[in-house]
Amino acid sequence: MRKDMAAAEVQGLRLKFPGEADFVFKDLDFSVVRGEHVLLLGPSGCGKSTLLQVLSGIIPDLVEIPMRTSAQQLPTSWRFLFQDPETQFCMPYVDEELAFALENLGIPQPEMSARMEAALAEVGLDLPELHVSIDSLSQGMKQRLALASILLGDPEVLLLDEPSALLDPLGREQIWQAIAKVAEGRTLMIVEHRIEELTAQGLVDRVVLFGPDGRVLGEGAPEVVFDTYRSALVEFGIWYPGVWEEYLASEGGRRLLEPTENVREANGPVMVELKDFRGFRQGRPVIEVGQAAVYPGDWIAVTGPNGAGKSSLLLSLIGLLPAEGTYVLQGKRMETGKLRRRSRKRQLERSAREIGFVFQNPEFQFVADRVADEVAFSLREDGLGVEAIRERVAECLNRFGLTGLEGRHPYQLSLGQKRRLSVAAAAVREQRLLLLDEPTFGQDAANTFAILQLCEELRRRGIAILMVTHEERIAERVATQHWEVREGRILSQRITPRAANRLANAGTPTGPIGPSETEAVMAK
């Protein structure tokens, strides 16, 4: 390829993380033509995000990882959009964030307001005024703000690393519409697992399919790749149109969906009881629960738009947000209201013993410098011996597809690997209640289904699961209950069709659970 045609190129790329035997890339040749829109597709951990960072120069200029190339061409003008917009913000208000970008470009202050408004209009972000707190925006609005901010630099190349990973369905649709609107005349390099909205926009010219070892398996127009390489997509568990339907019709999917005897036994003990319960952020209630109950063997999917209060519900239950009202955990009433430091510490210690928790951002919970030590950390708290810990850790890493990464720092994992590590560390102790905040985001199809199968295995052993998710198939078909949260309140609690037959036989209500009906369920 002629140099003047390439937006970015690398030849003979060799790269591997320190202390590991296997290469992430070995003699990889890759290039993108100016104006081309390319999707990098492959299983979690195959090196897609790493390649974006190499093509931009982030590796090795900012992140020092050993690599070698025979030739390399970096973009002359580029900007990077990450999956979590909050990692890109430097200022607390919208106008200040945009002004920060303009100041770095030397734009005179009198010209800034017009440019800010034009950038926001370009990404479809309509705000009442420019001086709006970024914290008040939904996740989808934040991601469009981040896109507006990088567009102020008028980059020729946009590198998009799973920009829809943390968004609800509406937010995903909005961000891809915004990207499609600004894509003309620009080069796009995209890493994305969720491809429904992306392909619906007709945004991609070429798909490059990677295998788990970082090799290119094939490339071409989207419809050609999805058809020609269907067997590889299936073999390596990569997302493609129709994969959910095929999985749910498979033997593993049918087993995941089948009714079982221990789905919320009507006369079993209540694991969690909530009544007039509220969780607070900065003194303001952000989640309210009139009445709700969780039983052993429940799998409750919590859905709702970004900013509705789903994560706040989990954080209030674990004790990381202050709360008030009635909260009974495993038959013992938890202290709520204003607590002194010693009481709050006691509550957190008790919660940690009885509840496994996975944050929406996996990096928030990492405490060790090695993957194996991260999983082993909580086991040491349980007083297990060295050999017993080693065996449990090896088994857990194998179950979550992390074998071979024992010595890597958690921050050096891919997004999907970080998420699997966070779930593994939470699930290894097999506490009776598991709170999962978006455990499947950033995962390829194989790992998404593996996490669901593990959750079902735990559920059948009587472990209760509260899972925040934006995946409607999980909420409507896989979970046993569906709680919908909007504007800081649980609006509905419904038994899913999967659990309805068993619950009807047990004499438990199977329709929507309203405030009065919830009390009857709790009484059982």
- Please give the largest β-sheet: 7 strands, mixed
Low-confidence stretches: 505-524
CATH architectural label of the largest domain: 3-Layer(aba) Sandwich
Class of secondary structure makeup: alpha/beta
In CATH, the homologous superfamily of the largest domain goes by the name P-loop containing nucleotide triphosphate hydrolases
Number of helices: 20
Write up this protein:
With 524 residues, the chain is α/β, with parallel strands linked by helices. It folds into 3 domains: 1-75 and 186-241, P-loop containing nucleotide triphosphate hydrolases (Rossmann fold); 78-154, no CATH class; 268-523, P-loop containing nucleotide triphosphate hydrolases (Rossmann fold), CATH 3.40.50. Helix content is 38%, strand content 22%. The chain contains 20 helices and 21 strands. The strands form 4 sheets. A 7-stranded mixed beta sheet has the order 16-17-18-13-19-20-21, with helices on both faces. Strands 6-7-8-3-9-10 form a 6-stranded mixed beta sheet, sandwiched between helices. Helix 6 links the parallel strand 7 and strand 8 (187-191). Helix 5 packs parallel to helix 6 (169-182). The longest helix has 16 residues, at 445-460. The chain is globular and about 70 Å long. The model is unreliable at 505-524 (pLDDT under 50). It is a peripheral membrane protein. This is ABC transporter ATP-binding protein. InterPro entries: AAA+_ATPase, ABC_transporter-like_ATP-bd, ABC_transporter-like_CS, ABC_transpr_CbiO/EcfA_su, ECF_ABC_transporter_ATP-bd, P-loop_NTPase. Keywords: ATP-binding, Cell membrane, Membrane, Nucleotide-binding, Translocase, Transport. GO terms for molecular function: ATP binding.
